[in-house]
Amino acid sequence: MSSQPTEQRARSNSTAAGVLDPPEKTDKSSSQQKELQEDRETLLNMFRLMLLIRRFEEKCAESYSLGKIGGFCHLYIGQEAVGVGSISALRKDDYVLTSYREHGQAIAKGISPDAIMAELYGKATGCSRGKGGSMHLFDKDVSFLGGHAIVGGQIPLATGVAFASKYQENDRVTLCFFGEAAVNQGAFHESLNMAQLWKLPCIYICENNMYGMGTSLARAMSFSDVAQKSCAYEIASELVDGMDVLAMRQATERAVKRAREESLPTLIEARTYRYMGHSMSDPGNYRTRAEIEKYQERDPIKTFANKLKQQNVITDADIAGLEKEIKEEVEHAARFADESPLPDPSELYTNVYASPLN
Amino acid sequence: MRDALNLALKEELARDSSVFLMGEEVAEYQGAYKVTRGLLEEFGPKRVIDTPITELGFAGLGVGAAMAGLRPIVEFMTFNFSILATDQIINSAAKMLYMSGGQFKIPIVFRGPNGSAYQVSSQHSQALESWYAYFPGLKVVMPSTPADAKGLLKSAIRDDDPVIFMEQERMYGMKGEVPEDEEFTIPLGVAEVKREGQDATIVARSLMVPTALKAAEELEKQGISCEVIDPRTIRPLDIDTIVESVKKTNRLVVAEESHAFCGVAAEISAEVNERAFDYLDAPVKRVSGVDVPMPYAKNLEQLAIPDVERIIAAVREVSYS
Fold first, then answer.
1. Domains B2-171 and B192-318 share a fold
2. What is the DSSP string of A163-202?
3. Residue in B57, B91, B98 nearest the CB of A191
4. E strand or H helix at B209, and its extent?
5. Is the ipTM of this complex over 0.95?
6. Which residues on chain B are in Cβ contact (under 8 Å) with A160?
7. What does the pLDDT look like over B173-188, one tens digit per residue?
8. Are strands A215-216 and A211-212 parallel, antiparallel or unpaired?
9. Residue A112: inside a domain
10. pTM of this prediction?
């Protein structure tokens, strides 16, 4: 039984600002590889998805400032490699549960940008029929089980979905995303304990973007090495460079194998960074421009594009073509959302109960 | 009562393999209150599961399992401990169907004893039904007889929505006839007139039902004929049966173990005011748990819980006698 962490890691360094460095030098499986293992179609699809998410989120920011999207809107820009890399290691019928920063993961799991944008616009054609909004995207057909907006709330839920797979004796795997701030919630610890105690096929991916809203990790966590917290539960864990889509894919593949074949959980800590504020209403005064630029130098899309170009998988012309195609796809989504009808007023009262009784 | 609940669990576990039971001490220990006695032996550790003391965690695990097609029964050793799990009950179970646009129903039962026990003091003696009844998306059930307990629990397990099923520790030893028919169920959302009467209506639930019936017996001797109604389901509330009775008796007393402030009796009073104001010959009177944390001392505890005398006094007050 692989109850020990699968990678030996040095204690993470903290910078003067208290921000953690990405584990580029400690993760043996990632960017140092010379040969790409994946086939061309897989690589291109991953690149395309990352670019689509980036452009989709930029469009969201625009639509939000135009007042077309209401409420809270949390963008995924900067973190695309985490969602795309990990979800690329799943089967279509594997489950994904996540937090409120989930547009990108929803796209990666296969919900159409049209249905997501329509949901953000609060339209009847949205993936949750306009009743969930940005933080509550759902699509049963692609096993995307939400968008949950209480920090850490999805972690016990995902544990239960994995429990059901084991109970039903199918081999579906559950992937659960959450931010590093959720690690301070009891829900995280209660879930990891049960997952290892009962050997549940659940993969917990902590997207460590180093800020819980405006509070840096250093100000919120007494021991900030999230992956090491797995030791308390004897759960296998891995620290991964969340800016490297292939490292994310490969780490998740190892976790999927462990879940599917041995029915065991894994904790993956993905070090990443969000370029935008916590939500659209956050000006981000708690961090410096220089800090953001430092991470943008390792932009996951830029570095992956360079890698693909070096390996002759893609050319600048291909990228330009993709950009054009994606721009049209995103414009289509915005147009579709704009032109879709609002939910009928009678929808206010539907779906409160499955069997309403009276 | 505990055998009736046990029988309902046993029959439903046998009927549907997607039903499973989890909670603290439900399996090897045979249940803190022995409601789950013998179930581990009959259905095995896959279906009857001891959990760690981790209420938020296993409540959420249950909701997640329901999303993926199972029908969990989650036992809280007492509903006092469910307070730790409210995030998952309220933010996940109650809202999942709605915020997913109808895609994910949550067929789950959260059950256990609610209200006072015997001298277990402030943190173990709370009646929390008004908390859960507040939330659209939840159903709240409170049986007062062994037969009702069996029929309602079976309906709750078969129901496609999250059901808060509140038992009462003081009533686990209650005796009564229970139908053995495996298809015997009682629909949720339907009140029962436990005693017919003409002069005043008493609405009571859970522990207050036997108390109200005793009060009605005593009042009969004093020349006041009381109708006693047990709503059995708090949400959805069968207000029609209550309003019909008030139209006949013109007087209403609502008895409850829980606190009056923002409580279920307050809600029933408001509904009756809106629907039957012209029929009332006296203001609606609430008889509720005293507005203090539950004390330990036996005499103080008795003073805190509504009893036969307080209900009699309330009925006499609305009857101006």
1. yes
2. HHHHHTT----EEEEEEGGGGGSHHHHHHHHHHHHTT--E
3. B57
4. helix B208-221
5. yes
6. 60-68
7. 999 999 999 999 999 9
8. antiparallel
9. yes
10. 0.94
